[in-house]
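In this supplementary section we document a worked example of the pipeline. Step one takes a protein sequence of length 459 as its only input; no multiple sequence alignment statistics are reported here. Step two produces a three-dimensional model, which step three serialises into structure tokens for compact storage. The input and output of this example are shown verbatim.
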Amino acid sequence: MTVLHAQIDALEGALKRLRTGDFQVFGQLPAMLDDLRRRADDLERRQAELISLYEVGQEIVSILNLDRLLESILTRAIVLVGAERGFLMLQSSTGAGDQDDFVVAAARQFAQGEVDDAQIEISYGIIRRVLASREPVLTTNAQEDPRFQTSHSIIAYQIRSVLAAPLLAKEDLIGAIYVDTRLSARLFGESDLALLSAMANQAAVAIQLARLYEDLQARNRELQQALRDLQDAQDELIRAERLSVVGRMAAGIIHDLKNPMTTIKGYAALLGRGDLDPEARGRFSGIITRSVDTFVQMTQEILDYARGGGPLQPQEIQVGAFVEDLCAFIERDFSDKGLALVRELHYTGPLLIDEVKLRRALYNIASNARDAMEAGGSLTISTSQTDGGVELRLRDTGPGIPDTIHDTLFEPFVTCGKAMGTGLGLAIAKKTVEDHGGTIAVESVLGQGATFIVRLPLS
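The serialised model returned by step three reads:
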């Protein structure tokens, strides 16, 4: 049972005695009422302190900026216990955690503002004691307290009462908070010390949260900077790779275009001879013509790729007639090399395509097959209808596609085993087929040829 309850019970007993006519207790009533009133005042003050402490806790835990938080803690502490000045010490970033590794983080005098260095020096002795013991300190007469005897400024500044409490977050000593009053002000009591100690516990947690937030912010800035640096490095690598691709492309194009140009130059010089018979002249003229055709074809491939091929101009064609036209276009090149063209047309009906572009795509595939095969080989072009589409297969009997380029076969500037070419033929073919909403794939076994499979929707 609390002291207040005991006093209420005693007062109730005295009233009962009065009702029974025992007036001897009448003289005790004023003292009992005064004591009750004092206890009620203490409770009311304690309640107000707890409310203030709760409000302080609510405020400081909501502040994430460390500098603002420290100023708020110190201001609230001075107001909470009715002090005149104070300061707050924190462990230094390079310190080992003892009492000599702390620095003044905030200091102020309630009436005049900032606290000067001389005033701070007055309290270093007691602050070191608090930091070393991790226990709060209360003095009601600093003028005679032996803990302050080494400071001659105590008398000059008329310091009378002092409170100091450590800032502890579990086992971590974060710092300490100090407040004092002068001779003309009130003295601190045990309740003030308890109030400041309770606030110091809240402040320690708030400071840890603010530090954690600042650390997270710093880490976030570091990560953002690292991300920007990484992005810059990636952009630089992309630029370097693009330059490298342009260089390889230019080297490849120049190399490939030199072959037909060299042939044209050589045979053009031969045509200038006066002793050349008509048969040789006609043969040399044919060679020059074919070289020019090759040159035009290669440059057209480069232009087509650079321009993206342009928009499709679809029209309905008959698949059988389309394949026959393609074969008629390439048959002479195949027969000149001793190669056979085989047709297996299981579907010859209508199909909606850009005839010029798709013929060019299939011609690129057929030309690669022609260049890869030796005399006696063959290219089989077959057609069939699938669910909602048409499938065209171009199967050759060449050496097959090397594993080294199988996965990059349809990428630009990939070529293998061709004396002349830009490496763009299959890249253009793939883009053309995909522009039609279709797909292109390849099946190949080394030594057994390759099959290109083009699948196109009917509409």
